[in-house]
Structure of L-lysine 2,3-aminomutase:
Amino acid sequence: MHIITQTHDEYQGMSWQQILAQSVKTVAELITQLALDTSQIERTLRTKLAFPLLVPPTFVARMQKGDWNDPLLRQILPVQHELQQVEGFGVDPLGEQVTNVQKGIIHKYRGRVLLIAASGCAINCRYCFRRHFPYQENRVGREQWQHQLQYIAEDSSISEVILSGGDPLMLSDSALAELLEQIAAIPHVRRFRIHSRLPVVIPQRLTDELLTLLQRSRLKTTLVLHVNHPQELSTEHAKRLPIWHRSGIHLLNQSVLLKDINDCAEVLIELSERLFELDVLPYYLHVLDRVQGAHHFEVAETQAKQLHQQLLANLPGYLVPKLVREIAGEPNKTPLQG
Protein backbone atom coordinates (compact mmCIF):
# COMPACT_ATOMS: atom_id res chain seq x y z
CA MET A 1 0.00 0.00 0.00
CA HIS A 2 1.45 3.36 -1.03
CA ILE A 3 1.45 6.11 1.57
CA ILE A 4 0.50 9.40 -0.08
CA THR A 5 -0.25 12.30 2.25
CA GLN A 6 -2.91 14.57 0.82
CA THR A 7 -2.14 18.21 0.17
CA HIS A 8 -3.91 20.57 2.59
CA ASP A 9 -5.92 23.25 0.81
CA GLU A 10 -4.98 26.03 3.25
CA TYR A 11 -1.45 26.07 1.82
CA GLN A 12 -2.50 26.31 -1.82
CA GLY A 13 -1.34 29.56 -3.38
CA MET A 14 1.03 30.36 -0.50
CA SER A 15 4.74 30.93 -1.10
CA TRP A 16 7.27 28.78 0.66
CA GLN A 17 8.36 31.83 2.68
CA GLN A 18 4.79 32.41 3.89
CA ILE A 19 4.52 28.76 4.95
CA LEU A 20 7.90 28.88 6.67
CA ALA A 21 6.80 31.96 8.64
CA GLN A 22 4.00 29.86 10.19
CA SER A 23 6.41 27.23 11.55
CA VAL A 24 5.78 25.67 14.95
CA LYS A 25 8.45 26.69 17.45
CA THR A 26 7.25 25.41 20.82
CA VAL A 27 6.42 21.98 22.21
CA ALA A 28 3.14 23.33 23.61
CA GLU A 29 2.02 24.54 20.20
CA LEU A 30 2.93 21.20 18.61
CA ILE A 31 0.97 19.29 21.26
CA THR A 32 -2.07 21.48 20.66
CA GLN A 33 -1.99 21.15 16.87
CA LEU A 34 -1.65 17.36 17.03
CA ALA A 35 -4.17 16.88 19.87
CA LEU A 36 -1.63 14.88 21.86
CA ASP A 37 -2.39 13.50 25.32
CA THR A 38 0.50 14.66 27.52
CA SER A 39 -0.41 12.46 30.50
CA GLN A 40 1.39 9.49 28.92
CA ILE A 41 4.68 11.12 27.98
CA GLU A 42 5.05 14.54 29.65
CA ARG A 43 8.09 13.62 31.78
CA THR A 44 10.11 12.57 28.74
CA LEU A 45 9.64 15.85 26.86
CA ARG A 46 12.03 18.79 26.80
CA THR A 47 10.75 22.34 26.65
CA LYS A 48 13.95 24.31 27.39
CA LEU A 49 16.08 23.78 24.32
CA ALA A 50 19.60 24.70 23.25
CA PHE A 51 18.74 23.14 19.87
CA PRO A 52 15.30 24.66 19.28
CA LEU A 53 12.16 23.07 17.97
CA LEU A 54 11.33 24.18 14.43
CA VAL A 55 8.88 22.48 12.07
CA PRO A 56 6.81 23.92 9.19
CA PRO A 57 3.02 23.50 9.25
CA THR A 58 3.09 21.54 5.98
CA PHE A 59 5.17 18.85 7.72
CA VAL A 60 3.01 18.90 10.86
CA ALA A 61 -0.01 18.36 8.58
CA ARG A 62 1.45 15.00 7.48
CA MET A 63 1.61 13.73 11.08
CA GLN A 64 -1.14 11.59 12.58
CA LYS A 65 -3.07 13.45 15.24
CA GLY A 66 -3.03 11.93 18.71
CA ASP A 67 -0.12 9.58 17.93
CA TRP A 68 3.09 10.07 19.96
CA ASN A 69 4.71 7.34 17.84
CA ASP A 70 4.11 9.04 14.50
CA PRO A 71 7.36 8.58 12.51
CA LEU A 72 7.48 12.23 11.46
CA LEU A 73 6.79 13.55 14.94
CA ARG A 74 9.56 11.40 16.44
CA GLN A 75 12.11 13.02 14.12
CA ILE A 76 11.50 16.53 15.46
CA LEU A 77 10.20 16.05 19.04
CA PRO A 78 12.70 17.13 21.76
CA VAL A 79 13.06 14.51 24.49
CA GLN A 80 15.08 14.10 27.68
CA HIS A 81 17.35 11.49 26.06
CA GLU A 82 19.12 14.37 24.31
CA LEU A 83 20.62 15.44 27.64
CA GLN A 84 22.44 12.16 28.22
CA GLN A 85 26.20 12.05 27.63
CA VAL A 86 26.93 8.78 25.82
CA GLU A 87 30.42 7.47 25.09
CA GLY A 88 31.30 7.66 21.40
CA PHE A 89 28.88 10.51 20.67
CA GLY A 90 30.40 13.96 20.22
CA VAL A 91 29.76 17.45 18.91
CA ASP A 92 31.79 16.94 15.71
CA PRO A 93 31.13 13.32 14.69
CA LEU A 94 32.52 13.71 11.16
CA GLY A 95 35.64 15.69 12.07
CA GLU A 96 34.48 18.68 10.07
CA GLN A 97 36.46 21.16 12.14
CA VAL A 98 39.60 19.82 10.44
CA THR A 99 38.12 20.01 6.93
CA ASN A 100 36.50 23.42 7.51
CA VAL A 101 39.43 24.91 5.59
CA GLN A 102 38.12 28.46 5.58
CA LYS A 103 34.98 30.35 6.47
CA GLY A 104 32.03 28.74 4.69
CA ILE A 105 33.99 25.90 3.05
CA ILE A 106 34.29 22.23 3.98
CA HIS A 107 36.68 20.28 1.77
CA LYS A 108 36.58 16.61 2.76
CA TYR A 109 36.77 14.68 -0.49
CA ARG A 110 38.92 15.03 -3.58
CA GLY A 111 37.23 16.57 -6.59
CA ARG A 112 34.36 18.19 -4.74
CA VAL A 113 33.93 20.95 -2.22
CA LEU A 114 31.05 21.86 0.05
CA LEU A 115 29.87 25.45 0.48
CA ILE A 116 27.94 26.41 3.60
CA ALA A 117 25.51 28.56 1.64
CA ALA A 118 23.06 29.14 4.51
CA SER A 119 23.16 28.63 8.25
CA GLY A 120 19.45 28.18 8.84
CA CYS A 121 17.08 25.29 8.15
CA ALA A 122 13.34 24.98 7.61
CA ILE A 123 13.19 22.15 10.14
CA ASN A 124 15.35 21.08 13.05
CA CYS A 125 15.78 17.30 12.87
CA ARG A 126 16.82 16.02 16.29
CA TYR A 127 19.38 13.59 14.80
CA CYS A 128 21.14 16.29 12.72
CA PHE A 129 24.90 15.66 12.61
CA ARG A 130 25.50 19.42 12.44
CA ARG A 131 23.34 20.35 15.42
CA HIS A 132 26.51 21.60 17.15
CA PHE A 133 28.23 23.03 14.06
CA PRO A 134 29.74 26.53 14.51
CA TYR A 135 27.49 28.31 12.01
CA GLN A 136 28.25 31.70 13.51
CA GLU A 137 31.88 31.26 12.49
CA ASN A 138 30.92 30.11 8.98
CA ARG A 139 28.19 32.56 8.10
CA VAL A 140 28.99 34.10 4.72
CA GLY A 141 26.96 36.87 3.13
CA ARG A 142 26.63 37.52 -0.60
CA GLU A 143 29.33 40.17 -0.41
CA GLN A 144 31.80 37.54 0.91
CA TRP A 145 31.15 34.80 -1.67
CA GLN A 146 34.19 35.94 -3.63
CA HIS A 147 36.50 34.44 -1.00
CA GLN A 148 34.86 31.04 -1.37
CA LEU A 149 34.82 31.25 -5.15
CA GLN A 150 38.50 32.17 -5.22
CA TYR A 151 39.30 29.03 -3.22
CA ILE A 152 37.47 26.93 -5.82
CA ALA A 153 39.02 28.76 -8.76
CA GLU A 154 42.53 28.15 -7.42
CA ASP A 155 42.05 24.37 -7.11
CA SER A 156 41.65 22.82 -10.57
CA SER A 157 40.95 19.39 -9.04
CA ILE A 158 37.49 20.59 -7.96
CA SER A 159 34.93 19.50 -10.56
CA GLU A 160 31.82 19.61 -8.36
CA VAL A 161 30.46 22.23 -5.99
CA ILE A 162 27.97 21.10 -3.35
CA LEU A 163 25.69 23.54 -1.54
CA SER A 164 24.85 22.50 1.98
CA GLY A 165 24.24 24.18 5.30
CA GLY A 166 22.04 24.63 7.15
CA ASP A 167 19.86 24.36 4.11
CA PRO A 168 21.00 26.13 0.92
CA LEU A 169 17.44 26.48 -0.34
CA MET A 170 16.80 28.92 2.50
CA LEU A 171 18.47 31.36 0.10
CA SER A 172 16.19 33.29 -2.23
CA ASP A 173 16.03 32.30 -5.88
CA SER A 174 17.79 35.54 -6.81
CA ALA A 175 20.67 34.82 -4.43
CA LEU A 176 20.98 31.28 -5.75
CA ALA A 177 20.99 32.56 -9.33
CA GLU A 178 23.83 34.94 -8.53
CA LEU A 179 25.86 32.25 -6.75
CA LEU A 180 25.28 29.66 -9.49
CA GLU A 181 26.31 32.10 -12.19
CA GLN A 182 29.60 32.80 -10.43
CA ILE A 183 30.31 29.10 -9.86
CA ALA A 184 29.56 28.31 -13.51
CA ALA A 185 32.12 30.93 -14.55
CA ILE A 186 34.90 28.73 -13.08
CA PRO A 187 35.98 26.56 -16.06
CA HIS A 188 37.04 23.39 -14.23
CA VAL A 189 33.74 23.07 -12.33
CA ARG A 190 31.39 20.71 -14.21
CA ARG A 191 28.75 19.70 -11.70
CA PHE A 192 26.54 21.50 -9.20
CA ARG A 193 24.77 19.73 -6.36
CA ILE A 194 22.23 20.94 -3.80
CA HIS A 195 21.52 18.98 -0.62
CA SER A 196 18.22 20.08 0.86
CA ARG A 197 15.42 18.94 3.13
CA LEU A 198 13.41 22.09 2.55
CA PRO A 199 11.48 20.80 -0.52
CA VAL A 200 10.59 17.70 1.50
CA VAL A 201 8.99 19.61 4.37
CA ILE A 202 7.72 22.48 2.18
CA PRO A 203 7.27 21.21 -1.41
CA GLN A 204 6.29 24.73 -2.49
CA ARG A 205 10.02 25.50 -2.41
CA LEU A 206 10.26 23.74 -5.78
CA THR A 207 9.42 26.95 -7.60
CA ASP A 208 9.30 27.43 -11.35
CA GLU A 209 11.87 30.22 -10.95
CA LEU A 210 14.35 27.93 -9.20
CA LEU A 211 13.86 25.24 -11.83
CA THR A 212 14.45 27.72 -14.65
CA LEU A 213 17.67 29.08 -13.22
CA LEU A 214 19.05 25.57 -12.70
CA GLN A 215 18.05 24.53 -16.23
CA ARG A 216 19.84 27.49 -17.77
CA SER A 217 23.18 26.75 -16.16
CA ARG A 218 25.88 24.95 -18.15
CA LEU A 219 26.55 22.82 -15.06
CA LYS A 220 25.04 19.37 -14.61
CA THR A 221 22.72 19.86 -11.66
CA THR A 222 21.64 17.37 -9.01
CA LEU A 223 19.14 17.93 -6.21
CA VAL A 224 19.62 15.53 -3.31
CA LEU A 225 16.53 15.31 -1.12
CA HIS A 226 16.39 13.95 2.40
CA VAL A 227 13.30 11.77 2.87
CA ASN A 228 13.34 9.23 5.70
CA HIS A 229 9.81 7.84 5.58
CA PRO A 230 7.17 7.47 2.82
CA GLN A 231 4.68 9.43 4.93
CA GLU A 232 6.82 12.52 4.23
CA LEU A 233 5.81 12.44 0.55
CA SER A 234 2.61 14.25 -0.40
CA THR A 235 0.44 14.83 -3.45
CA GLU A 236 2.23 18.16 -3.82
CA HIS A 237 5.51 16.27 -4.31
CA ALA A 238 3.78 14.06 -6.87
CA LYS A 239 2.89 17.20 -8.85
CA ARG A 240 6.28 18.90 -8.74
CA LEU A 241 9.09 16.34 -8.66
CA PRO A 242 8.32 14.63 -12.00
CA ILE A 243 8.37 18.05 -13.69
CA TRP A 244 11.86 18.67 -12.32
CA HIS A 245 12.99 15.26 -13.51
CA ARG A 246 11.62 15.82 -17.01
CA SER A 247 13.37 19.20 -17.07
CA GLY A 248 16.77 17.53 -16.72
CA ILE A 249 17.47 17.93 -13.00
CA HIS A 250 18.90 14.75 -11.49
CA LEU A 251 16.89 13.84 -8.39
CA LEU A 252 18.43 11.66 -5.68
CA ASN A 253 17.43 10.83 -2.13
CA GLN A 254 19.41 10.02 0.96
CA SER A 255 17.92 8.75 4.20
CA VAL A 256 19.16 8.22 7.71
CA LEU A 257 18.33 4.93 9.38
CA LEU A 258 16.48 5.87 12.58
CA LYS A 259 15.33 3.66 15.43
CA ASP A 260 11.54 3.25 15.70
CA ILE A 261 11.06 5.48 12.64
CA ASN A 262 12.24 3.63 9.54
CA ASP A 263 14.18 0.62 10.90
CA CYS A 264 11.77 -1.72 9.17
CA ALA A 265 12.24 -3.41 5.80
CA GLU A 266 8.62 -2.81 4.79
CA VAL A 267 8.94 0.94 5.39
CA LEU A 268 12.26 1.20 3.53
CA ILE A 269 10.94 -0.82 0.58
CA GLU A 270 7.86 1.39 0.41
CA LEU A 271 10.07 4.48 0.53
CA SER A 272 12.20 3.32 -2.41
CA GLU A 273 9.16 2.39 -4.46
CA ARG A 274 7.40 5.65 -3.77
CA LEU A 275 10.49 7.76 -4.49
CA PHE A 276 10.95 6.08 -7.86
CA GLU A 277 7.30 6.69 -8.76
CA LEU A 278 8.10 10.39 -8.26
CA ASP A 279 11.26 10.09 -10.41
CA VAL A 280 13.67 10.26 -7.47
CA LEU A 281 16.42 7.63 -7.26
CA PRO A 282 17.32 6.19 -3.84
CA TYR A 283 20.97 7.08 -3.28
CA TYR A 284 22.28 6.56 0.26
CA LEU A 285 20.97 4.98 3.43
CA HIS A 286 23.17 6.35 6.20
CA VAL A 287 23.64 4.78 9.58
CA LEU A 288 23.43 7.45 12.23
CA ASP A 289 26.27 9.94 12.55
CA ARG A 290 27.14 9.72 16.24
CA VAL A 291 26.35 13.27 17.27
CA GLN A 292 25.82 14.18 20.89
CA GLY A 293 22.13 14.25 21.76
CA ALA A 294 21.01 11.72 19.14
CA HIS A 295 22.07 8.33 20.56
CA HIS A 296 18.44 7.23 21.03
CA PHE A 297 18.03 7.18 17.23
CA GLU A 298 20.88 4.72 16.60
CA VAL A 299 20.23 1.40 14.91
CA ALA A 300 22.89 -1.28 15.50
CA GLU A 301 25.11 -1.89 12.49
CA THR A 302 24.25 -5.61 12.46
CA GLN A 303 20.54 -4.74 12.20
CA ALA A 304 21.27 -2.15 9.52
CA LYS A 305 23.05 -4.78 7.43
CA GLN A 306 20.17 -7.23 7.87
CA LEU A 307 17.69 -4.60 6.73
CA HIS A 308 19.83 -3.84 3.71
CA GLN A 309 19.91 -7.53 2.79
CA GLN A 310 16.11 -7.54 2.89
CA LEU A 311 16.04 -4.61 0.51
CA LEU A 312 18.37 -6.43 -1.87
CA ALA A 313 16.11 -9.48 -1.74
CA ASN A 314 12.92 -7.52 -2.45
CA LEU A 315 13.88 -4.67 -4.80
CA PRO A 316 15.68 -4.35 -8.13
CA GLY A 317 19.24 -3.19 -7.57
CA TYR A 318 18.64 0.36 -8.81
CA LEU A 319 16.06 0.91 -6.05
CA VAL A 320 18.40 -0.21 -3.25
CA PRO A 321 20.24 2.73 -1.66
CA LYS A 322 23.87 2.16 -0.68
CA LEU A 323 24.20 1.47 3.03
CA VAL A 324 27.05 3.67 4.27
CA ARG A 325 28.73 5.15 7.28
CA GLU A 326 30.69 8.39 7.17
CA ILE A 327 33.93 8.12 9.14
CA ALA A 328 35.97 11.17 10.03
CA GLY A 329 39.21 11.36 8.07
CA GLU A 330 38.30 8.71 5.49
CA PRO A 331 38.60 9.74 1.79
CA ASN A 332 35.05 8.57 1.04
CA LYS A 333 31.91 7.23 2.65
CA THR A 334 32.38 3.67 3.89
CA PRO A 335 30.02 1.04 2.39
CA LEU A 336 28.65 -1.45 4.91
CA GLN A 337 28.48 -4.95 3.48
CA GLY A 338 26.05 -7.49 4.84
